[in-house]
Amino acid sequence: SGFRVRSDQDGRYALLASTTSYSLLIYGPMSVQLLGISSGSDIAALECLAGAAGFFVPFWMTSDRDVTKGGALAYTTGGGFGALHGALFGLVLYGDASMPDRLLPGLVLGGSLAEGIGGYYLAGRLGLTEGRVGLASSGALWGTVWALEGMAVISRSSNSRGMGSALLAGSFGFT
Fold it and tell me: From its phi and psi, is residue 36 left (phi > 0), alpha (psi between -120 and 50) or beta?
């Protein structure tokens, strides 16, 4: 007997597809490496658990909340760029030196989750449309490409820290 306003769920299916895909392709494999699991059955179990969590946790959390197309795209692009930014941050920290075995998977996993969830949250709070999120994502991509090209023109030597720093700055600078 109560009136209930329906929340905006236009982006829910896209969000669930992204969270599930990233869980199967990034979060599961990175968790296996981060935890140092080597048994085949344990790897399969953890990756299946990550994939299931990547669907059911967002499914449950968004059942009665707004999930706009802009928020879904912000999660998708943020999660992808976050994985890249995590790897580049490791490159900035260690350059050509040997990085601890579990640091890179941790940075990739943490960066992807932080930027994906953060992007989703900011898109909702700021009311960002799908078009605005797409524009920011395009800027990040072009900034990364231009930084890569710029480093190729400027530096003939292999400077891993400089390359990582330039790519991070380019990615964030054009968004």
Answer: left
Residues 6+ positions from 147 with CB-CB distance below 8 Å? 166, 167, 169, 170, 171
Residue 158's CB is within 10 A of a number of other CB atoms, namely 9
Residue 60 CB neighbours (<10 A)? 8
Q: Is 3 helix (H, G, I), strand (E, B) or coil?
A: coil
* Of 123, 6, 19, 118, the residue nearest 65 (C-alpha): 6
Neighbours of 40 (CB within 10 A): 8
Residues 22, 107: Cα–Cα separation, whole Å: 15
pLDDT-derived band at 160 (thresholds 50, 70, 90) equals confident
pTM: 0.88
Helix (H, G, I), strand (E, B) or coil at 91: helix
Bin 127: left if φ > 0, else alpha if -120 < ψ < 50, else beta. left
pLDDT for 103-158, tens place per residue? Answer: 999 999 999 999 999 999 999 999 999 999 999 999 999 998 888 888 777 776 66
CB proximity list for 105: less than 8 A, separation 6 or greater? 29, 30, 31, 33, 34
